[in-house]
Amino acid sequence: MRTTIAPRTSDVSGRRRSPRRGLLYALLAILTLIFISPLLYMLSTSFKTTAGAAAPSPQWIPIEPTLHAYESIFTTSGTPVVRWLVNSILAATLQTVLILVTASMAGYALARIDFRGKRIVFGIIIATLFVPPVILLIPNYLVVGRLGWLDTLLAVILPGAAGAFGVFFLRQFFLGLPLELEEAARIDGATRWRTFRQIILPLSRPALVTLALLSFLTNWNDFLWPVYVLFSPENQTLPAGLSTLQNANAVRYDLLMAGAVIASVPVLLMYFAAQRYIVEGVGRAGLKG
Question: Where are the domains of the chain?
C-alpha cells in the first residue's frame, strides 16, 4: 500500500507568497527609481559642463565630469553661497529649538493638565491649521517691521517659533504614554515639571526628533517669507539666494543643479540619521485622539 505524504502547510503557503512577494519588491523598486531619478539627474547635471547641461538630449552620465559649477558658485563674489548656507542652518536650527520648547510644553498641558476651557483652547489651536499661511504674510510683516527685525535672521526665526501642528502632534503622542509612569513619579515626590523633564521628554524622543526634522525642513525650504523680509545679499537664506542665482544665470543649468545639490545634502543627511525615530514617532503619535 503506497503512502502519500501531504506537503507541509508552511511550504505551500511560502510558495504561494513567493511570487506575490517578488511582485511587491519589483513594484517597490520601480517606485523607488521613479522617486530618486530626479535627484540622480540633478546630481549628474551638477557635474556637467555648461554645454553638456544644456544639451537637447539628456545625458545621465556626464561625458566630461567637472567641478566647474561648484567652483563658480563658491568663488563668485555676487553669490555668497557659504553665507547663505550658514544663515539657513542657523535660522532653521534656532526656530526648530524654539518650536520644540513651545510645542512640548503646550502639548503636555493639553494632554495631561485639566483646566477650564481646555477643549476650547485646543479647538482654536486646531482651527489655525486651516488658515492658509499666505494670509498671515502682511500681518507678520507689519509686526516684524514694528519690532525692527527686517533684514535680520530674527525675522525668519521668531514668527514661526510656535505652531499649531507641533502642539497637536506632541499632544497626540503624550496621550499614548502610560499614565502610570507619571502617577508613580508623583508618589515618589516628583513635581509636575520634574516629571515632564525627566520622564516624559526622554520617552518622547521619537516624536521630538520627528517634529524637529519637519520643523527644520519647513524653515529650510521657505522661500516666500525670506524674500519679503531679507534685503541684503549677505543676509539671504539659501532658497532665496539661489533664486537670485537662477535669475542671473537663467541658462546655466549646471550652476542651478549645483545649488540644488548643496541645498539638498543637509536635509538628506538629517533624514538618514533620524529615519528610525521618524517611523516610530509617526506611528505612536496616532494611537490616541
Answer: 13-69, 80-285
**C-beta atoms surrounding 164 within 10 Å:** 18
Q: What DSSP line would sit under 133-146, residue for residue?
A: GGGGHHHHHHHHHH
Radius of gyration of the chain (CA): 26
Cβ atoms within 10 A of the Cβ of 117, count? 9
> Could you say which residues of the chain have pLDDT below 70?
1-17, 246-251, 277-289
* Residue the block writes with cell 504614554: 177
Characterise 189 by phi-psi region: left (phi > 0), alpha (psi -120 to 50), beta (else).
left
Q: List helix spans (H) across 47-112.
A: 50-53, 68-75, 81-112
- Per CATH, which fold does 80-285 belong to? MetI-like fold (1.10.3720)
pTM: 0.80
Q: Which uninterrupted H or E stretch holds 61?
A: none
